[in-house]
Amino acid sequence: MEASVILPILKKKLAFLSGGKDRRSGLILTIPLCLEQTSMDELSVTLDYLLSIPSEKCKARGFTVIVDGRKSQWNVVKTVVLMLQNVVPAEVSLVCVVKPDEFWDKKVTHFCFWKEKDRLGFEVILVSANKLTRYIEPCQLTEDFGGTLTYDHMDWLNKRLVFEKFTKESTSLLDELALINNGSDKGTQQERERSIDMNFLPSVDPETVLQTGHELLSELQQRRFNGSDGGVSWSPMDDELLAQPQVMKLLDSLREQYTRYQEVCRQRSKRTQLEEIQQKVMQEWFAVYVELNQQIAALLNAGDEEDLVELKALQQQLSDVCYRQASQLEFRQNLLQAALEFHSVAQDLSQQLDGLLGMLCVDVAPADGASIQQTLKLLEEKLKSVDLGLQGLREKGQSLLDQISNQASWAYGKDVTIENKENVDHIQGVMEDMQLRKQRCEDMVDVRRLKMLQMVQLFKCEEDAAQAVEWLSELLDALLKTHIRLGDDAQETKVLLEKHRKFVDVAQSTYDYGRQLLQATVVLCQSLRCTSRSSGDTLPRLNRVWKQFTVTSEERVHRLEAAVAFHSTAEKILQECPEQPEAFNEMDQFDEIEAVGKSLLDRLTVPVVYPDGSEQYFGSPSDMASAAEHIREKMKLVSLKKQQLRQPEATTPES
């Protein structure tokens, strides 16, 4: 599907990919509903087109869909959410429905999306615009939702139109040029010339298409890896990142085929001129030969005996001269043909070196590690092609030098030694010049290769650092949801406390690993003289999750330590014998254990409060109730023990 076909629909901005990503690196798809009735058919077409743009790898990470219902009715929002089930069920992981400040009537919002999660295939949440940052970073949200991400829909649409037009024209042009060039590679030179139709020209001007491609690539790379003019780090949209290597690949293929096409035309023109000159030369000297031969034949027919021997000698001399002339012309023709092939290879090699140099002079605008690897592979392929071209040039040059060295003096005693020396010097000079140019390119490739490998390492560090944040988030989630039990006795609680310390050590190692990776990105960015994109996103996320984990971990330690103290004291009391005298004089232990137990029970009902003011509870209410029940049961046993100890004390005076 092409944007030009559905341009009126795309202009309505029924949905768009802003380039923002969620915390799982999934793309954010926004559906801004308006007061006017939204056409579900047009929205479906828009979604089909947008979802055809990202790569399969991007789709596999899932989409977060923001349905902006602040200016729409509830029934429209519900229809759109249900429609997503049929359009992109496998790719959607979360749908955030942005509700208006004045919430919809509860009577019409009785439809509970969370109950329909299994049927829908994705989770749906209702959220206010100012609460979206709980699920998506502000730097990944557009200004409509209080974020800082800039998105211009018409600018994006214009780029897509230019990109698709260039892709279509360049692909068609490549097919035409390949047809012309492949036809010129078959058979002998004469067959190649006959196979190329003089009227067979490309349907579009290659220069125009190349210029369009260069302008498009420049536009896509306008905000580069080093950030915008203001110094703020900027991440291109995913479709722009995908488009850049496609445009570069098409441009490289076009330049290669167009260079071959120009060479085919040039060789055809030279061949035509050479044949015209050869034909004129042949006509001139052959005409003289025919005329002289006819005159001698006429004299021989006259029958003058005294002239017969002399005439036959002249006729033989004429034949010898003609044979030598023909041999010299044939040798000259072969020499010129070898020179033509040598200079053709030299020109091809020169264009390859120009292309390689042009690629090396363009700043690297990487999308990710994979695109850098692809660019590096293309660079290595170009360098290998140059090596083969230089090897071919040497072979052609040596063949031409061998023919020149075997060249004899021309007729009439002409000495060609000086001329041959000039030709030899010229041929050797061309080969030496190409060798020097190739060496300079190799040196630049070595520098570029090192830079690109550093970029691969940078992206890897950023990716691993983001993964460390995810791991730390998972550890925090596990701590809150599964680390709930306080133990049934002091020994079990101590074991849980020791396990928790090991768990904290794992989290500490994960945090340290993430910090080291981010520090490595800073060093690499200093080496590359660029701005680290992680410093503005991953580092705050890592620190925020670590602070939340630290606070949660400390609360877990306090609860376990309180549980150890409670169980230890309770077990000591429960194990004491009533006959022991000191048991009757230490009733304050019961007051202490009751205070510790009540404090622990109160603590179980309090949430963990994070530095940003947000709150989280350990486990579910039923989990906390179960943990509290064990404490209450032991408190009852202690209370019963207290009563047992008081009974003997009360009956002693009577005895």
TrEMBL record:
Q: InterPro entries, from UniProt?
A: CRAL-TRIO_dom (IPR001251), Spectrin_SESTD1 (IPR056804)
Instruction: Tell me if Magnesium is a UniProt keyword of this record.
Output: no
UniProt-listed Pfam families? CRAL_TRIO_2, Spectrin_SESTD1
Q: Does Lipid biosynthesis appear among the keywords? A: no
Specify the CRAL-TRIO domain's residue ranges.
1-153
Sample GO molecular function, one term: phosphatidylinositol-4-phosphate binding
Ordered alphabetically, the record's keywords are: Repeat
Q: Which parts pass through the membrane?
A: none
Gene3D superfamilies from the UniProt entry: 1.20.58.60
Provide the family line. Belongs to the SOLO family.
- State the name under which the record lists this protein: SEC14 and spectrin domain containing 1
Gene, per the UniProt record: SESTD1
